Amino acid sequence: MARNRLIALGLFAAALAGISLVGGPVSYGFFFFTLTVPVISLIYTLILLFRFKIYQELETRSVVAESPVQFYFTLQNEDLFAHAGIRTGFFTDYSTITGLDSSTVYELLPHTGVSNRTTLVCRYRGEYEIGVRTVTVMDYLRLFSITFRNPETLRVTVMPRWEVLRGVACLEELAASARDSLITPNDPDVLVREYVPGDDIRTIHWKATARTGQPMVRTRIGEESPGISILMDSCRYDEAPDRYLPPENKLLETTLSLAYYYPARGIRTAVYAFDQGVCRYTLENTGSYERFYAELARFRFRPDSTQEKLFAAADTEPAIYRGNAVILVLSAWSDAAGAMVSQLGKSAIPVLVCLVTDEACGIPETEEGARVHFLTIGTDESLTEVFA
Amino acid sequence: MKIFFYELLYVSAVSLGAATLLFPLLGAGELFWLVVTVIVLLSGILTGFKNAGWTVRMLLTAGAVTVVSAILLLNRNEAIHEVFVGHAALLWLPVIAVFTFLAGEGVARIRLFRILVAAGSGLSLIPCAALSIRVEKLFVVAVLSLLLLTAAEEIQRTWKKSGSTDGVAHLVTLAPFLLVTMLLVAIAPVSEKPYDWAFVKKIAAQAEKGMRELHIRLSIGNDRDPSESMMGFSGRGQIFGRLHDSEEEIMVLSGLTPGIRYEKLTGKTFDTFDGQEWTDTDSSGLRDVTLDTISLLASAEEFTDHREDLIHRATMQIRYRKINTAYVFHPLKTIAAGSWAAAARLQEGGGDLLWPGVKSFRTEYTVPYFRINRDHDLFLEYLRGSKLPSYSSFAPNAMMVAGQDAADYSYEDLLRHREHVYEVYARPVELSGELRADLDALCAGVSAPCDRMVLLEGMLRGLSYTDQPGKLPERVKGETEFLDYFLKESREGYCSHFATALVLLARAEGLPARYVQGYLVPVGGETEVVVRAAMAHAWAEVYYDGAGWIPYEPTPIYEVMSRWETVEEREKLTEAAVVSPVGPPEHETVEAPDPEPEEEETHHIRIPWYAVAIPVAAGLLFAVFLLTILKLIRRIRFGRLTERERFAALCRRNLMLLRLLNLGIGETETLREYGSRIAAAAGAENVAFLRFLEDHLYDGSYDPREGESVATETGQRLAERLQKEHPLRSLRARMQTGM
């Protein structure tokens, strides 16, 4: 394009020199030619700007992070003249489209279109724009190109992903301490309920099962057995989306994965977060995980939902201190977190601290005797590999 | 169709160019547009003939027959016959059209040939322009069209794109933009002369002016003393040194009276000469400049009733440019009073006008002053009897000049001014004996001081002018030595020497005289003039009672004259111009009668009705005949096909009809899917043939006769429907299929 512009400019300069020195149809004709060609090319480009049509659609509006989804993309020419050069740019900050190259230039003859069906992967949980970001239109002589922002972008709400963790040692330790509180065969338990897929088979009440002919599992009544409490850091630490989306995405992913791990083993789990007040999400069993996931996936991180507020609110939740173990899922280590761990240590509650960060940090100091286990999780790391 | 339009683009460009190029060879005179149109049209028709189906070819042939028969019939008309006889070369038009068609086809089809023709024809314009070879504008348009088409196609070829990249379709669908481009070029104005970039020159002049003013602002210093090198003018009275030849613009004078040849602008006056240099010791606190002017007005009024014979009131606007000065440059006999003087807060001292501070670039002021008719005999006569005006004349003139400030200009002030002038400017100068004898001889018999001054001025103007007289010898230590050296020994110099000499000689005659430095501006009759540094000048002024200071120009090379006709002279001239005319004797004139206009032979071209009706009828008949033959041929051919081939042909026709009914098959659609999709819109009975077609295409297990029957009936139904819903498409279908 630069070459063509230089040639056009050079010819125009030559034409100017021509009419300055010589009269006649040749010099004037050439001058108006070098003047008119770029003007008409520019007009063509401007017409293209207003006449160009683009359609894009996602297979589903509900997208899960790092899960491919079908993306349909169509460029259409509804005019009587060719669209000589169209190029599209895509949002690439938080999503990836396979099979479509931003450098590809398309030509569309009248009443024709280009359709592509490909896959799109959103990297992080959150709400952001995907698909076509910019459109560049060019004229037939490659003199002009105008880039404009796509006014009709696709905005999606991406749900967090989660993983099914299996046989993680540090998690098993906590599970073991929690399982101690499980009902023993001699404990009086009154209520049983029907078995639902996902319940730990160790909680099956065989007598009730034999009696009813259907698998029945124990349900504790009376004093609640909290099992595992997960405290999730609720603070948004940065204004820029490329800074806050990855850690928040991994925080939720870790919380959701951990929250699923224990109920799958018959251990009740509660997740505590802070959003203008303490938010409590309980998960009795994996059967209600879908509801739990939907509620927690909508959680909003805020800059003023600091760790101090979270832990202060957690102090008002007796169930946490009656529980058997606590998992802290944090973006950063703070004095408030240290104080919380100390407090939990005084109550002899084992703590697992999951630090979601890309920065290299050492193990924070804690009081001697505290049963604390630290784990660092990178924002792009697989939980399975981390917990392996 | 796209191939046709694609080829038509190139064929049209080539035929247009060839037609304009070959036209001079045809000798068709004023038939330029007819020739070009016919050639381009014929080439286009040939292109259409080549790309069309047989039906269109037949119709075009029928049209050609119509035209030929019309020409043959019309040829019987003598007027039209003369057109063809007179321009026999027109018979070559079809040949040229065929040639240009073939060339255009070659350009369209062969890439290398296209590039060579486009480049060659483009380059051929260069010598045409350089050597002023006359070419038609249409030829230029044709060549540029070809270049544009070639460029668009080559750019498309090298541009890597996805999607529909068919170069032919690309060019055809972009043709409207290309055609608009060339149309604008075709209608653009053309001049035989190179373009006069008047507005650019104006912009350049404005820019240059701006740059010059910026340069002036930057180069003007803040020093109070005027820089001699910059302005030429000096506030010091040195009479030696290098003359300034700088063309720097010092100031601009405008609003001048038309017809003035020269204007002197006084900068500074000097009174004392020590042999080498003039100094200013005049410390008068009187408003000498204005008093001098009022004195002139009053005394002139006492001398003559027509004061305008001696003095004229004028104004000039002065605008400083590259100057930094405390001196108010002004003409002699300025009115340094009134609103302009008050606004500028002018200061008068020692015969000079001064600004309150230092003025520089863009200072503007309007000076009212009086021009004197110095070189008129009447003025000389006035000077001979010049005396101080009386109070009765002075007071009203003071009122007229100074207005409400007249009280500042009293008669007593005038008397004190005169006394001061004689005290400072009339110090006696002693001449050497030899010089005194020479001057006495020169002025022998002339008693009036003003007349003696004229003689002395003339004597000095007889010396030589040089811009490099060298320094004065050290022995010149006074006025007497200077005069002896200059008048006896050197006898050459520049303005400073001559002015100094005249001042000293005037004083030797007992007249008050002063040395003046300023600018001598050659106005040349213009009303606006630029004062340049090289115009810096020195001259002498002599004081006469009543008239005040009167300038003299002793420097040889300057012819400074201020003279205009008196009222009496003008009246005499007016009388002399009135002469009674004596015309020729009256005599009868017989006008020749207007010749009767000759009757022109008019040749009206009358086209008889049969000359139109017969060819049209012949063409139509021929077309019908051809179409009938074509239909017969198709039927015979169809009959010779096998059953399966006939079925296939019928299916193709039905699919075409469905497409014309906007029920065409999709690109990736199977026949079954297609049938299911259009069953509702087309009717189940009209898609039944698709089942047979599917069998025909895949395994061939079907009854061809039944299939043919179904297809035939379907075709009839679809044709009827098409005729009802889309009559034009129906006609097209008929022409294509010969139904």
Feature tags:
heterodimer, A: 388 residues, alpha/beta, Immunoglobulin-like, Rossmann fold, six-stranded mixed sheet, four-stranded antiparallel sheet, 10 helices, 32% helix, B: 739 residues, alpha+beta
Written overview of the protein:
The complex is a heterodimer of chains A (388) and B (739). Chain A is an alpha/beta fold and 388 residues long. Chain A has helices spanning 2-21, 25-51, 169-179, 206-212, 241-261, 289-297, 307-315, 318-322, 335-346, 383-386; strands at 53-58, 62-64, 69-76, 83-90, 95-97, 105-108, 113-122, 126-130, 132-138, 145-149, 154-159, 191-194, 216-219, 228-232, 269-274, 278-283, 325-330, 351-356, 372-377. Chain A has 3 domains: 1-159, Immunoglobulins (Immunoglobulin-like), CATH 2.60.40.10; 169-181 and 225-386, Rossmann fold; 190-220, no CATH class. Chain B is of the alpha+beta class and 739 residues long. In chain B, the strands form 5 sheets. A 4-stranded antiparallel sheet of chain B has the order 11-7-3-15. A 4-stranded antiparallel sheet of chain B has the order 4-14-16-17. A 3-stranded antiparallel sheet of chain B has the order 2-6-5, with no helix packed on it. In chain B, helix 1 runs antiparallel to helix 2, helix 1 (2-26) crosses helix 5 (93-109) and helix 17 (449-461) packs antiparallel against helix 19. The longest helix of chain B is centred in the C-terminal third of the chain and has 31 residues, at 610-640. Chain B is rod-shaped. Chain A binds chain B through residues 4, 18-30, 32-33, 36-37, 40-41, 43-44, 75, 80-82, 84-85, 104-110, 112, 114, 140-142, and chain B through 125, 128-130, 132, 134-137, 140-141, 144, 148, 151-152, 155-156, 159-166, 169-170, 173-174, 176-177, 180-181, 184-185, 188-195, 197.
